[in-house]
Amino acid sequence: MLGFWGLIMKRSVCDPEAFLQIYRVNGAYSKSASYSVLKGSRPFDLAGERSEKIHSAQRRLVARAYSMESTMNLESQVDELVIPLLKKLDDVAFSKHIIDLGYLLQLFAFDVIGAISFSKPYGFVSSGSDSFGSDEKFFARLARSLNSAAWLMHVGWFFRLHQKLVLPLIGNLLAINERNGFFFHFAQREVQTRKDQGGNDKDIVGQLSKVQQTKKELDDLSIAYMMTSNVFAGSDTTSITLRAIFLYLIRHPNALSKLRSELQGRQALGKLSSIATAAEAETCPYLQAVIYESMRLFSPVAFMLDRDVPVEGMTICGHHVPGGTVVGTSPWAIHLAPQVWGNDVEEFRPERWLDCEDPGTLRRFFFAFGGGTRTCIGRNISWLEIEKLVATLVMRYNFKLADDAKITEDSGVLVFLKGLRVQVTRLED
Ligand code: HEM
């Protein structure tokens, strides 16, 4: 019966009270059938798992490896990757060439995932490419898979039909299945290599291997599934955010100069290193506000995070919504609700995070990393990368959009921001 209601009724919710009810931490609404498309046949999949009970048991096994403390232990690995990025940008500034900053940031984010997951930086930034030898380019493959999920999540019946009939008889026709195919095999190989050849004990595979010693249910296969999520969910999301931040800063010179003077002020006091540490960046309020505001206006995740209304139903704006209905909110919808953000909701105004009486209230509606029990497990990793890189690059360079730059958006599960071609100049040391 519940499934029937879900099938015929789906409600996009933007009412702030209803939003808080759906994505609360206690008594969370469970994920809807559309997530089966992400999960496929994976027995260990935090993002796609629909059962709250299984999800919470699995999340407990891996949570520590993604905690703030564990992430901070990996900061030096990220710093090592910032160095080739700066070298690349210095060369570009010197040669006065135009560069696709968006692509460079994507290469960087992927290198970071490799380093913190498997102690394996892929060297994408240094080589300037996301290809492994003769293989198809990695990012194109990822994007195809994500775009396939975007439409299939609306027609789960088609996905199930494909899995039951087409897959065994004809073969795979859906790019989303690469999540359990190509990307899973990639992650599995990397986990095995990491285990055979060793690495930094503090990387994520190292930490999960430690958990494995006492929790046998976290077998090698589960670790490989978890690392597939890192590869699949960890680089595009972060690089889209970085692209959006730099684009907003380029388009809002006042915000940029305010940010730069905050950073330079800290630097003059010896409180900000030339490669900023996360701890230093955390103490820069305007920097933090710029990140929040950019992610509010340009959230990498675009889809409605579907949840099932429990049997007793719920009330939205005085209307009863029966149990089994699929409800959900997209970050793009709640981030543009004037009841929460005010009438200047479409303006890029980092000050809103600093002026408001209670920033905690705004943060309750900040949905870029999802909400409730299913919030992003990689948030600490991404935030560390983002705050470090934005502070470091803003102190060192000025970016100007190239005359022929054409910014476009390509929207599916994620909203890809493309065309960030820029001129780079070094600021005076
Ligand atoms: C700016 C960067 C990122 C953004 C905006 C982002 C966004 C999100 C969102 C909105 C969700 C909730 C999805 C839902 O409810 O359906 C989510 C979940 C998840 N993310 Fe991220 N993510 C980011 C970075 C990362 C990174 C770096 C990793 C891994 C290293 C990662 C791994 C995951 C996983 C495994 C889940 C499922 C968590 C669970 O349900 O327990 N994400 N992310």
Automatic annotation (TrEMBL):
Pfam families: p450. The keyword Transit peptide does not apply. Signal peptide: none annotated. One of its GO terms (molecular function) is oxidoreductase activity, acting on paired donors, with incorporation or reduction of molecular oxygen. InterPro entries: Cyt_P450, Cyt_P450_CS, Cyt_P450_E_grp-I, Cyt_P450_sf, Cytochrome_P450_monoxygenase. Transmembrane segments: none annotated. CDD domains: CYP57A1-like. Keywords: Heme, Iron, Metal-binding, Monooxygenase, Oxidoreductase. Coiled coil: none annotated. Heme binds at C376. Its cofactor is heme. Belongs to the cytochrome P450 family. This is Cytochrome P450. It comes from Xylaria grammica.
